[in-house]
Amino acid sequence: MNVEDAINFANTLVQQQTDKPLSTPQTLIIRQLWLNRELTYLSIALANGYTEDYIKQVGSKLWKTLSAKTALGEKVTQENFKVVFERRWNLQPPTPIIDNHFVGRESEIATLIAKLRGDCRVLILTGITGIGKTAFAGRLTAELLGNFPESIKINFDHYQNTDFASVAALILTGSGEILTPEDRNNSQLLFNWIVTRLENNPYLLVIDSLEFILKGNGDFHDEYWEKFFNYLLSANSCRSRIIITSQDLPQELYIIGSRYPTYWHYEPLKGFTDIEQLEFFKQAGLDIGTDLDKSDSRTYLKRIGAAYEGHPLALRVITGEIISHPFHGSIVAYWKKYGHEIKKVEQSQEEEKVKSDHDEMRLDRYTSSLQRAVKDRVEKTFKRLANDVPNAYFMLIFGSVYSYPVGENFYFNTLETLGLGEEDQYAVLNTLRDRYLIEEMIDDNNDYLLRQHNLIRTVALEHLKNSKNGK
Ligand SMILES: Nc1ncnc2c1ncn2[C@@H]1O[C@H](COP(=O)(O)OP(=O)(O)O)[C@@H](O)[C@H]1O
Ligand SMILES: [Mg+2]
User: Fold this and answer.
1) What is the pLDDT of residues 136-194, one digit of tens each?
2) Is the whole model's pTM more than 0.85, yes or no?
């Protein structure tokens, strides 16, 4: 049982007991005590900007929840939890980690699942960066597991070779084929091979961030891609399904797709609805109050959600700030300090609305103004981090050189070269995780990895360049 297993184990139990996932400070306590038995509540509090009393309180409540009859049913304490966890965990098979924080989008999911179980062969999800395309595709994949037990994922955020042959080779080896070096260079052979394979076998192929294999004008770099989609959409039958995410709708794909309306579907993703926004804040650990209470915090959250039009990434980094030091979840305190920024966003969104009178133009402007607002939001978060926790800021910008997800070790090594001791290294990593500036993932090999969202990474890279230029 490693630390992530322990956190997941506790999370499952706490969720069953309280209907809420492990909170940030709860996770912190488990993580740090698990990794270092010598730590005290005081040292955890100090390293993470909490008071000792607060951490003590969170800790004792956590052990109580875990000790409940319907949870572990035995006394769990700071001293014995590791032993108890391991003993109990070994008695049950480990549960796979699924993103249990996924919020909303229920009717879209139901509609699209029905389509993919039906005739729809190619589904393309579009929307600006951070709007939730990857998360949505992941959710669809999980739902479709029963129909398509084998899924193959290609993510162009991390994959450098965009020519058809290398990607086709990747898909084929992913589906268990063995390729010779000659095969790998023969585009036509790979093409025939792959389309036959997909036609006759039920694979779920997920192509994430397709925009990276498009040229500026929205056409494919490699004409084989066009052939590929043309073939699969016009084939008499095709047992596989393809889910694509992309920031823009590829022009060529649109033209091909429109010829086969029953076999393809195009779904632009928008931000969360009002209700989903509140649900999202709640899942992230904020106290949203109830419908009846007209509390300030609920009103502020609604305004924050609306100002960013329910954009998940923007809301996520804001939540990260509210949860962390010095606000510790106080929405009102956050608003007092930064409410003026939200008001400014509200204002500029309002101006855009007035300026654009045609619907189409409005949509365009709206999108780009939201995009600007989101990037601006990320910039602000970076600046604050640089002030509040400089080491975390340095780690964040150095981390941008990893264009693909990496193990924790990469981060620890960098932090070590920055001269940080072990405890501080964990504290930095936790800060970045808590503020949602790095995301955790489990890859196909069940390895625990860290990654930066594209938008976060883009901003981080800019900061890194500027810092090198001495700005
Ligand atoms: N429905 C959702 N529920 C909870 N979190 C979400 C949801 N959609 C997106 N997110 C979160 O928002 C961030 C951006 O989402 P992502 O899927 O990476 O966007 P995109 O692929 O469009 O750039 C991620 O941290 C993701 O976990
Ligand atoms: Mg994505």
Assistant:
1) 999 999 889 888 888 888 888 766 677 888 888 888 887 788 888 898 889 999 999 99
2) no
Strand, helix or coil for residue 431: helix
Distance 50 CA to ligand 2 centre (A): 33
pLDDT digits (tens, 9 = 90+) for 308-360: 989 999 999 999 899 888 888 899 999 999 999 999 988 887 777 666 555 55
Residues 6+ apart with CB under 8 A from 178: none
3-state secondary structure of 267: strand
| 261 phi, psi to nearest 5 deg | -55, -30
In the three-class reduction of DSSP (H, G, I as helix; E, B as strand; rest coil), residue 319 is classed as helix
Taken in order of first residue, the domains within the chain and their CATH numbers are: 3-90 (no CATH), 106-268 (3.40.50.300), 274-384 (no CATH), 389-468 (1.10.10.10)
Which residues' Cβ are closer than 6 Å to ligand 1? 101-105, 127, 129-135, 245, 280, 312-313, 316, 439, 453-454
Amino acid making up residue 192: N
> Which two structure tokens, joined as six digits, stand for 340?
């003026």
| SS3 state of residue 302 | helix
- Candidates 61, 71, 103; CA nearest to 288 is 103
Q: Which residues contact 346 (CB under 8 A, 6 or more apart)?
A: 303, 306, 307
